[in-house]
Amino acid sequence: MKTIEILVDDQDFSKLKNLLIQLDFIKHIKEKQAAEMDATTLLSEQSLAEEWDSIEDSRYEQYFQK
């Protein structure tokens, strides 16, 4: 069994759900709300990116691309 994820606008969800219900092979339809990013993650994103994308790290990327 496979799970797929489809993103639609809120106003189109009911139309899509009605269409999918008509198909015999659809086992389950679940509405999932988008996860919100908390303030701590949002504020720390830039400082973490500076550490992760440092010049020191790029030398390893250059080494392995040879």
Could you please describe the fold and organization of this structure?
By secondary structure, the chain is mainly alpha-helical. 50% of the residues lie in helices and 0% in strands. The chain has helices spanning 13-21, 39-52, 55-64. The longest helix has 14 residues, at 39-52. The chain is elongated, with a radius of gyration of 21 Å.
Q: What characterizes the major β-sheet?
A: none
* Through-space gap between termini: 41 Å
Low-confidence runs: none
Q: Tell me the β content.
A: under 5%
Would you tell me the structural class of the helices and strands? Answer: mainly alpha
* Envelope shape: elongated
Radius of gyration: 21 Å
Helix content: 40-55%
Give a brief description.
With 66 residues, the protein is an all-alpha fold. Helix content is 50%, strand content 0%. The model has no long low-confidence stretch (mean pLDDT 81).
Topology (SSEs and partners):
Elements: H1 13-21, H2 39-52, H3 55-64
Q: Which descriptors apply to this entry?
A:
elongated; 3 helices; 66 residues; mainly alpha
